[in-house]
Structures are given as structure tokens and as C-alpha cells.
Write a structure and sequence with these properties.
The protein is built from eleven helices and five strands, in the order E-H-H-E-H-E-H-H-H-E-H-H-E-H-H-H. The protein is an alpha/beta fold. It has a domain of about 220 residues: Rossmann fold. A five-stranded parallel β-sheet has the order 2-1-3-4-5, sandwiched between helices. The longest helix is centred in the middle third of the chain and has 40 residues. The radius of gyration is 20 Å and the shape is globular. The protein starts with 6 loop residues before the first strand and ends in a 10-residue tail after the last helix.
Length: about 325
């Protein structure tokens, strides 16, 4: 892309991270990116289809379930269905100049990541972040032929700096009453083994992030090997959260949970989400009816959303230097 007109269509796809779970509209990462682009003199036309709970899904397996309140964590519409909605009946959209994507964690399933007894995590990570992501890249590459495509990574939800009690409370908010251990084990035993449990969780969260990122990079590289020209259009945005930015750490970029298991995002958002979860209870599994109102837990705060926006903008600066006055040609 060497020349730009004033119009800039931006398609936003994905899950709760891209949706901005628990943050107000002006604080969402895509809004911050729009502000940056508007500041460069562009007239941005956003097509915002991300929502909480979205899975990538499969390219030719439509669920045909309608979208609901974006704060309510449901898998559908899938990201592939979001693409079809963005196309609005067309095969391609040549007007789109940017596609932002963050997706995959729900295909793997957070409960699988945090369940210390689950031994199949790597298989699901590979299938989601390599196979499905590569199919997603190919679909976006051909459906939005003039767009820069930025795939966003994830973060380590719990780190060695996370406070143990906050971690265990967060697990309860996600539906884990006794992680790793049988439900009959008492609270005293849990406290005694708490450090071992949380240390293992930290390792598991780091493994998920690192393995997912490796697979996304591999999917991009393999696409570029087949389509060398894709190198100019495909980018990976690592949010680069640090250990101190995890849930319950010293400088958190993620919401935790209060000791009474009430959510930490603004009451205006949390209360609306709780009511929406009741309205759409028929779309939620029993566990999700408990976790849904607390869905902001382990999601980026406004500070975390800003960090995501900054790395996206940094990728745009590299991809379209003329836009930022960095073009040396």
C-alpha cells in the first residue's frame, strides 16, 4: 500500500478480548486504533463484529445463530460467520483496508487451559492456532484483498507475581471450585496445596500463551511460503503483557475478581451483562450462566486495552509507513 485516500474501512473480528469485555466503548482497543487513524486524517468506517465467547469455528459449518449482546459469552456467530456478515452477500470486499482479529482461546476452551488434570491441551492449541488460524488467514486474505490483516495474540492470565488468594478466587469465578483436586477435598487441604496448584497454573498459562503464539507465527509463515506477496499484508501483534500485568499482580492489565466473587469491571457494565445473561440464558450452558456475569475476570482493563492498541498501531506504522509520515521512498 503506497497511497491512501481519505476513507479507511476497518473490519474487527474475534472474541471477548477484541470485543473489550468489561470496558466502555471509548476504552476498547479498536476504538483507540480508530482514534489514532482519525488523528492521521482518515475517515474510518468500522465494521465491528467481535463479541464475547466467539469461537473461530470451521469455514463451511455455519451455526446460523444470531448475534446477541456482545458482553454475553456465546460461541456464535463464529469468526468465519463474522466474515460472511462483513461481506454482506459479496464474495470479496475490496474497500476494506484493515482487518483486526483476536480469536482462538474459546476453541481451545479456558476450562481446558486451567484444568490441571487435562492432558490434551497441546493438541487443541495446535488445531486451533495453527490449522484453524491458517484457514482463517486464507479466508481473510482472499475476501479482503486490499487489507492489512493483523492477528492479535494473548497473554499470561496468571503469573508468578499473582497473589495466590486472588488466583483461587478467580478460578472460583470461572467455575473451578477445587482445581486439580476431587470435589470432596476440604478447604484446609486446598490451602495447604494452594501453592503447588497456583505454581502449576502459572506454568500452564505461560505454556498456553507461548504455544499459541508459536502456532500463529507458524501459520503466518506457512501462508507466506505459499503466497510470498502475503508478507506485506500479514502481521502478528503480541500484546507483550509482563508478569506484573497478570491477574492479581502488582500492575495488573487484567481484571481480577472481588473476594465475594463480584466482578471488578464498572457496575454499569457488569449489571447490564448480568441482566443480559438472564435474558439470553437459553444460549448459555449451566456453568456459563454462573460465569457469564463474571466474564470480565482475566480480561484486559482499560490499561490492557491500551497496550493492545499500541502494539496494533505499531504494526500499522510498519505496514503503512506513509500513513504515519515514516515513508522513506
Amino acid at each position: 500500500m503506497t497511497a491512501l485516500d481519505n476513507s479507511f474501512k476497518m473490519v474487527v473480528l474475534g472474541d471477548s478480548v477484541m470485543w473489550g469485555q468489561g470496558v466502555f466503548e471509548p476504552q476498547k482497543m479498536h476504538t483507540l486504533v480508530i482514534e489514532a487513524l482519525t488523528g492521521r486524517g482518515l475517515s474510518v468506517e468500522p465494521v465491528f463484529l467481535a463479541h464475547s465467547g466467539a469461537i473461530i469455528g470451521e469455514p463451511d459449518e455455519p451455526t446460523n445463530k444470531p448475534p446477541i449482546d456482545g458482553e454475553v459469552p456465546v460461541g456464535e456467530p463464529t469468526v468465519f460467520e463474522q466474515i460472511q456478515t462483513a461481506l454482506n452477500g459479496s464474495e470479496r470486499d475490496e474497500a476494506a483496508k484493515l482487518v483486526l482479529i483476536c480469536a482462538g482461546v474459546n476453541d481451545v476452551d479456558v476450562t481446558r487451559i486451567l484444568n490441571l488434570r487435562d492432558r490434551g491441551l497441546d493438541k487443541y492449541i495446535k488445531d486451533t492456532f495453527y490449522r484453524k488460524t491458517k484457514l482463517l488467514i486464507e479466508r481473510c486474505y482472499h475476501c479482503f484483498p486490499n487489507a492489512i490483516i493483523i492477528l492479535c495474540g494473548y497473554y499470561q492470565a496468571f503469573s508468578e507475581e499473582s497473589e495466590q488468594k486472588i488466583m483461587l478466587d478467580a478460578l472460583k469465578a470461572m467455575g473451578f471450585s477445587v482445581p486439580l483436586l476431587p470435589n470432596s477435598v476440604g478447604e484446609l487441604v486446598i490451602e495447604v496445596l494452594g501453592e503447588k496448584i497456583t505454581d502449576t497454573l502459572v506454568e500452564r498459562c505461560a505454556h498456553f500463551r507461548d504455544s499459541a503464539h508459536d502456532c500463529i507465527r507458524e501459520a503466518i509463515l506457512d501462508t507466506v511460503r505459499i503466497l510470498p506477496e502475503a508478507k506485506e499484508r500479514l502481521f502478528f501483534a503480541d500484546p507483550k503483557f509482563k508478569a506484573e500485568n497478570a491477574v492479581g499482580a502488582s500492575q495488573p492489565f487484567l481484571y481480577g475478581i472481588n473476594s465475594d466473587l463480584s466482578p471488578q469491571d464498572p457496575p454499569e457494565i457488569a449489571n447490564r451483562r448480568a441482566k443480559a445473561c438472564e435474558v439470553y440464558a437459553d444460549r448459555l450452558e449451566l456453568l456459563d450462566q454462573f460465569t457469564g456475569p463474571r466474564a470480565s475476570c482475566a480480561h484486559p482493563t482499560p490499561l490492557g486495552a491500551r497496550q493492545y492498541a499500541d502494539v496494533i498501531i505499531a504494526n500499522l506504522r510498519y505496514a503503512i509507513p506513509i500513513l504515519f509520515g515514516d515513508d522513506k521512498s
